[in-house]
Write a structure and sequence with these properties.
Number of strands: 5
Number of helices: 6
Order of helices and strands: HHHEHEHEEEH
Largest sheet: 3 strands, parallel
Distance between the termini: 19 Å
Protein name: GPI inositol-deacylase PGAP1-like alpha/beta domain-containing protein
Strand order of the largest sheet: 1-2-3
Shape: globular
InterPro entries: PGAP1-ab_dom-like
Helix content: 25-40%
Pfam family, one: PGAP1
Organism: Zizania palustris
GO molecular function: hydrolase activity, acting on ester bonds
Strand content: 5-15%
Radius of gyration: 19 Å
Length: 225
Amino acid sequence: MSQGLGNNTADYARLVAALRDDHGVPAVSVARVSRPDWLRNAAGLVDPNYWRCALRPRPVLDWYLKRVEEAVAEARELCPPNGSISLIGHSAGGWLARVYMEEFDASDISLLLTLGTPHLPPPKDVPGVIDQTRGLLNYVEKNCAPAVYTPELRYVCIAGRYIQGAPLTGSTVATADEMLAVDASSDVVEAVMVSANDKSPPPGPTLRARFIGQGYKQVVLTLQL
């Protein structure tokens, strides 16, 4: 299991317990990462490609890929003969798992399950959009195997609901035929379809949407089954 940015091993204790106790997974191994470990990524600041938004995963993220390799090696030891390994990646850990599978031996990995992972790079030449991966997702898109379901390697991406960010000031109008996920009090995802035939003015952005819009303009979620 590979963590999301800023997460540590202990954050996944409940998920590990659920996989073992509720779903009968015999062995679960999580990459050993602490929160201070993520400070190692600051090494990318001295790479000119960081400022050009053309950063490559290696060598900046070699430390993380090594932790994933250690977790996979542990899973191999615990795996029954002729068994296969399922790799779970949360958030950025999903596309980092794709980098791992491209760079290391992944012949016995039969499933990559990603949780809330942005697999597509942010759009270019769009005002206000910031590539917070500094080019890493562009690298993954161009150099790693596509995140598509095949008989040999099953990709499953689970994406939850999200809030579309909005500019801090001013008003925004949703484009025609655009599906927007909205916050809901229940566990069921609700959505509003803005139709080209609907002439009523769309609701203005909420304060929460304006706040989120300042930090997460670049997030793109894809659902692949």
